[in-house]
Amino acid sequence: MQKRTVYLDHAATTPVDPAVVEAMLPAFKETWGNPSSLYEQGRNANALMETAREQVAKVLNCRPGEIIFNSGGTEGDNLALKGVALQAKLKGQGNHIITSAFEHHAVLHAAEYLERFGIETTFLPVSRDGLVDPEEVRRAIRPGQTVLVSIMYANNEIGTIQPLAEISKITREHGIVFHTDAVQAAGNLSLDVQALGVDLLSLSAHKFYGPKGAGIFYVRSGTEKRILWQQQGGSQEKKRRAGTENVPYIAGMAKALTLAEANRPEYWEKVRVLRDRLLAGIRERIPGVILNGTYAADKRLSNNINLSFEGILEEGILQSLDLQGIAASNGSACNVGAIEPSHVIAAIGGGADLAMGTLRLTLGKSTADADVDYVLEKLPGVVERMRALSELVV
Ligand code: PLP
């Protein structure tokens, strides 16, 4: 088969949809005013931004006033943890938060940072299937001390979907703020915050065919009092996030989210069929393959494959695939270049050997049958060579 370029890293980022570029252009060319300015150019930019806010609120089934625009998932996650924990600390209302061991580093590192302020964190264990047990959340709660629970909606490495609605029943019983990092869920799962029962939710546009550096932070009405806002300056975003809003990106992000929501069922099914064929083909052709995380249809994102190959101790698999034109990952993009075992695979009980030789393949809108065929042709040889190399090293 002729060499081709196959992009299978949609969990890292997605290409911007041409319709999203179209939606952004007027905000660059015509409606370029400062949305805080009172004259016409400003009012027009503000109107564009508020329309975007309404579109986003519709997808999340919330009020437009509960939406804050920011720079992405990292900012939202940091604000959720620091904002809630530090506000509680300041008011003497508690000093304990709960999260899971396999969250994105934006959550894990924010929790570590908070230790310096005397905030304690419980990192919940995750099952072999890659799921957080709501009963573990209940057990970890320290009455009168726990102020926040932050559990991701879908894991970025293994795509497993967490039982948010069940967890929210528990947090509500205790009056604890519940945040979810829904960055990987957008475009795949419902973002209806009423059904999920979450109080705070982080999203990032570049994961759903929008621009990079643009995000959404949902704050349930009433929860704003429990947040110490982290960015001071002008009175943008109702003084919750100072700084001139990026109107073109906001317009594009709202378009991207609306499109993703409208196409969600077809998208889910399309990538599921391709994903299942790819996984079955890999298992047929390569011995000693382990799928990380559950394969249950309703508990794993339908575009995600995460594999460990027995007998591979080296990182070279990604480079070898790259030479063949295949873009894949070993987990989170933030770990590129760092030869560290995946904390996600470690959290689900994969030993260091499995955590090293992982491969994440995440399909997307443009993935075609020919891409699956190509990977099925190239991957067995790559794995064979990597295994031979690992034997030499040992
Ligand atoms: N949370 C999760 C689950 C992610 O996958 C990512 C991106 O990889 C982030 C947060 C960070 O989002 P951003 O790139 O917008 O900062």
Which short descriptors sum up this protein?
Aspartate Aminotransferase, domain 1; 2 domains; seven-stranded mixed β-sheet; alpha/beta; Aspartate Aminotransferase, domain 2; about 400 residues; binds pyridoxal-5'-phosphate
Helix content: 40-55%
Name the beta content range.
5-15%
Number of continuous helical runs: 14
Helix-strand makeup class: alpha/beta
Q: Quick one: overall form?
A: globular
What number of domains? 2
In whole angstroms, the N-to-C terminal distance is 33 Å
Regions with little confidence, pLDDT below 50 for 5+ residues: none
Highest-level CATH class of the largest domain: Alpha Beta
- Let me know the number of strands: 12
Q: Name the CATH superfamily assignment of the largest domain.
A: Type I PLP-dependent aspartate aminotransferase-like (Major domain)
Overall pLDDT confidence: 95
- CATH architecture assignment of the largest domain: 3-Layer(aba) Sandwich
For the biggest sheet, the summary is: 7 strands, mixed
User: Could you give the order of the helices and strands?
Assistant: EHHEHEHEHEHEHEEHHHEEHEHHEH
Cross-sheet strand order for the largest sheet = 2-8-7-6-5-3-4
